[in-house]
Design goal:
The protein has 113 residues and is mainly beta. 6% of the residues lie in helices and 53% in strands. It is built from 1 helix and 8 strands; from the N terminus they run E-E-E-E-E-H-E-E-E. A hairpin with a 6-residue loop joins strand 7 and strand 8. The longest helix has 7 residues. The two termini are 23 Å apart.
């Protein structure tokens, strides 16, 4: 299951506004490669919607069947908003509904704010 945890007002390439929903997967333990200690995190992604902002607000907390998968994509630069550090990544995360068996490859990831 994934949970709708936030929404963002975005603009399409044609400057048309739309609502993107942030989806968060189940919590999972990851071991730090630096300290060796475990920490709890969740995979996140965003997905476009046709909803209004008011309706998107009501969806926060709703759970959907499916999972968030990591996929390989063409390398891109990502700026950490907290530290300002710029890193090159070659993966992204996508939502895979429960009924789908294989994730659809994306040409380029959409960066979230």
């Amino acid at each position: 299951m994934v949970t709708i945890t936030a929404y963002f007002l975005r603009e399409s390439k044609l400057t048309k506004p739309f609502i993107a929903l942030e989806l968060s997967g189940d919590p999972e333990f990851i071991q730090s490669s630096i300290t060796g200690r475990f920490y709890l995190t969740s995979k996140k992604c965003t997905i476009s919607s046709t909803y209004t902002e008011d309706f998107a607000k009501m969806l926060i907390g709703k759970q959907l069947p499916g999972r968030i998968d990591r996929i390989e994509v063409e390398a891109y630069e990502y700026t950490n908003q907290t530290t300002g550090e710029v890193v090159t990544l070659n993966h992204s995360y996508i939502y895979v509904p429960e009924e789908t068996t294989h994730p659809v490859q994306q040409e380029k990831p959409v960066q979230t704010a």
